[in-house]
Specification:
- The chain contains twelve helices and three strands, in the order H-H-E-H-H-H-H-E-E-H-H-H-H-H-H.
- Strand 2 (140-144) and strand 3 (150-157) form a beta hairpin.
- The chain is mostly helical and 327 residues long.
């Protein structure tokens, strides 16, 4: 404080500027020396490329079948997605990816020199597989994207094409593995269903034979058994239905002929369906027999005897009979 006023602090840059000008050649020389020393090291370093493949882990797989899901899981558990991430980096998935992409035959992954492949024995193949798995797992990384059902598979390589092929190949190997596991579970469920169906069919056949034997011993069925009994009952019902249908059609035909034949009795009687009726035929036969009896009694007793009058009474016919009572 000077004279009750605050003195502002000031920074003098002039001294720094003078020092920079004075030592400028030293600074430039140091930069040149550092660049010359670092250039060989930088030129010796190879470029690294990172490729990423994204995989969607569905909480519930699509079901294109009309049957319920065979593969059941609870995606709400905290360890479900972590298990899927670990499975992508597991040996079984990586080994499948190595075989699919033939990385065990690639010298960059097996550590062998090009053209220096040894004997193709089981032990050498296993060693190449182990080396390829180590190289693949060393540069592979699986990361789950927070708050999503996505997982990113990244691979680092000196070649951008190799990095992209490896990332996509591991993702495809994981997808193929999960699909294969679901297929195996469906096959197991189908075999189990077939076994259950065979057991049920055997049980049904056994119960049917026992019922057939019991009913046969009790004399409740014919020699054809349960199937023959059911067939016989069906045949009886079918015959009854056919008879009823035939009678209905015949009655409907008569009804239509009577309605279309006119209103007079003579026109109705002249119809074939009416004149050939069984009751009409019986009435005609009875009338003929009564007329024959009347003729014989007239010859024997004469027209004034009581028996002759009884026969005439039987033969007397109303010129307009009530044909509606005939049916």
């Amino acid at each position: 404080m000077e004279n009750g006023k605050k003195r502002e602090s000031s920074v003098e840059f002039s001294r720094f500027a003078k020092e920079l000008k004075k030592n400028a050649w030293k600074i430039a020389l140091a930069g040149i020396v550092a660049g010359v020393v670092a250039y060989p090291l930088i030129s010796m370093m190879s470029s690294k490329y990172v490729s990423t493949a994204t995989v969607l882990i569905k909480a519930q797989a699509d079901n294109v079948s009309p049957f319920p899901q065979v593969d059941g899981f609870d995606s709400t558990r905290s360890g479900y997605y972590e298990t899927q991430y670990a499975l992508m980096h597991s040996r079984i998935v990586l080994e499948k990816a190595v075989r699919d992409m033939k990385l065990d035959e690639n010298p960059e992954f097996t550590g062998e020199k090009a053209g220096a492949r040894g004997a193709d024995s089981n032990e050498s193949r296993q060693l190449r597989m182990e080396q390829a798995l180590k190289t693949l797992a060393k540069n592979l990384n699986v990361i789950g994207i927070r708050t999503t059902n996505l997982a990113s598979i990244t691979y680092e390589s000196t070649s951008p094409q190799v990095a992209a092929d490896i990332a996509n190949g591991v993702a495809q190997a994981f997808i193929n593995y999960t699909v294969e596991q679901k297929r195996l579970k469906v096959e197991q469920a189908r075999e189990l269903n077939f076994e259950k169906m065979e057991e049920i069919q055997t049980s049904i056949a056994k119960q049917k034979d026992e019922m057939d034997n019991y009913l046969k011993n009790a004399g409740l069925l014919t020699f054809r058994g349960i199937d023959g009994f059911e067939t016989e009952q069906l045949s009886i019902v079918t015959n009854r239905l056919a008879d009823a249908t035939q009678r209905r059609v015949a009655a409907e035909s008569v009804y239509n002929e009577v309605n279309g034949g006119g209103k007079s009795i003579e026109s109705v009687i002249s119809l074939p369906s009416v004149s050939n009726h069984a009751q009409i035929q019986d009435l005609r036969i009875a009338l003929i027999q009564a007329q024959r009896t009347l003729s014989e009694q007239r010859k024997v007793y004469g027209p004034k005897k009581s028996r002759h009058f009884k026969s005439r009474g039987r033969c007397s016919v109303d010129p307009k009979p009530d044909w509606t009572s005939i049916g």
